[in-house]
Write a sequence for this structure.
């Protein structure tokens, strides 16, 4: 009788240990069966850009405006081995053109960028006031500070890529964004005002 009880008490921990091991093994199996993790489900900004397969778009922003013209800016990052050419940009809030600032008759003037915006391989091309920019030609509605504006870029090979830019107040360069007006005044920053607007 005592021998039977001892044998039973020895068996129980072994059975209990086997059950625990089985449960833990099942939990680990469940955790790895879907192949995802918290890190895999929250892509970094560069991972999002890579998924698009064309360019990274860093710190995109658009100048807040009630009417008329305005522009979108940011840094275009080409991590690929070949140059990429943007041939068009579009948004639902305005017709758009690709613009540059260039010298004409001794003056800096704004004009359409012939041939598109080229982002060289393994480099960054900055869109900024007083330089290349995405021009919103005639706003259909106000773009207010904090608004999120969606843009679609079209590339020379027919691919497209969409990104979102936050609208920010910007008075530093006093641009009017009308053809024929010059670059930012000397001593101005060419950067938007710091706001508490959500990051793009």
């Amino acid at each position: 009788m005592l021998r039977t009880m001892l044998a039973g008490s020895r068996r129980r921990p072994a059975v209990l240990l086997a059950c625990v091991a089985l449960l833990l093994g099942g939990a680990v199996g469940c955790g790895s069966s879907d192949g995802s993790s918290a890190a895999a489900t929250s892509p970094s900004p560069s991972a999002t850009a890579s998924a698009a397969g064309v360019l990274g778009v860093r710190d995109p922003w658009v100048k807040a405006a009630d009417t008329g013209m305005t522009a979108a800016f940011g840094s275009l990052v080409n991590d690929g081995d070949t140059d990429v050419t943007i041939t068009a940009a579009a948004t639902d809030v305005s017709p758009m053109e690709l613009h540059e600032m260039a010298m004409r008759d001794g003056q800096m003037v704004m004009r359409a960028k012939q041939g598109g915006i080229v982002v060289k391989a393994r480099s960054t091309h900055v869109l900024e006031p007083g330089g290349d920019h995405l021009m919103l030609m005639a706003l259909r509605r106000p773009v207010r500070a904090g608004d999120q504006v969606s843009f679609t870029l079209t590339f020379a090979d027919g691919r497209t890529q969409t990104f979102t830019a936050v609208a920010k107040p910007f008075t530093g360069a006093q641009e009017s964004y009308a053809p024929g007006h010059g670059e930012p005044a000397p001593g101005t920053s060419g950067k938007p005002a710091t706001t508490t607007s959500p990051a793009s």
About this structure: DSSP finds three helices and ten strands in the chain. The mean pLDDT is 73.
